[in-house]
Design brief:
The chain has 326 residues and is mainly α. The chain has 11 helices and no strands. Helix 1 (3-15) crosses helix 10 (244-268).
Amino acid sequence: MSVLRSLWFGLGRVLKAPALLGWIYLASLAVSLPLATVVRGKIATHVGGSLVEQNLRTSLDLDWYGEFVEEVSGVAATFGPEVIGHMALVANLERLLDGELFAAHRTLLSAGGLFLIFWTFLVGGILDRFAHPREPHSRARLFGHSGELFWRMFRLLILSVLFYLAIFRFVANPLHDFVEQATRDVTTERTVLFWTALVYLFTGVLLAAVSMAFDYARIAVVVERRRSAVLALLRGLGFIARHPGPTCGLYLLLLIVAAAVMLFYGAIAPSSSPSNWAAVLGALAIGQAYVLARILVKLWFLASQTVLFQDAQGQPDHTPTPSAPR
């Protein structure tokens, strides 16, 4: 059971299934384009043909932005400097580590929930493709397995949300409160930042452990045809406990890949000052390339973990029998 083998073969299985990348990308467009259209319309209406339009062609006019957010409501109110370029990465990471993913605007939550439901539906078919790369695959098989496994994956989704909330309710938030109380009279800012960073690091480790456990639970549902979400989660936790080195090593390598993609995008992400059509199209291309890269990395996670899981069984392309554990 080799970590590097799992990483390499996982990437190969992803690259041999470009249609999966396309389906997820189209789903993201279907969810985001209506919201983007609404925001664009609100901005166009507010700007009109004023001189502000000329200013916005060179940079974000903060005076105009202040007036804009005071006058608009709904999803348009979520527009701001934090959604431009690499700032979006920082803002999303901060929300994740602060446990505020569910504190976003209800329209964004609805859109995110819709995409998450689609991903939950499709993940069963995706894992079936990765678990049986030598078998013939088709769109009918993809959606057939996705529908068959949807409710099992949905139950795992509900459990994962409960775990996420529990981490912040019982661990992260109390630790932040403790650090705040303990450093109230501290005059050195570095000390506060150090302890806050430790809390963030510990929270990140817990979130990664939960993510990894649920990934292997989903894989167990597909590879071993398990029906119980709870038993599948216990199987995922047990697999990590029996193989801590390979599972954590593989996850760490994939996290490094994901971080490299994010840092590269942060370095080349366009600013808020595209002044011509070429710059606008370039910014669009870079942004969409980043979206595709993130989807590819997510699929790479699942494919590599599937290879590792099957290798541990001694049958890389194992197809479960009808008597597999439930």
